Amino acid sequence: MDLNSYVANLGREFATLAEAGGEEARAVVERLTGPLESAIRMTLLEALSAAADEITLDLAPGSVELRLRGRDPNFVVTLPPAPAPAPVDAKTTTAAADLAAAEPLLAEDGPAARINVRLPEQLKAAIEEAAAKEGRSVNAWLSRAAAAALQRSDPRAEPAAAAPQARQALTGWVR
Question: Is pTM beyond 0.85 here?
Answer without folding.
Answer: no
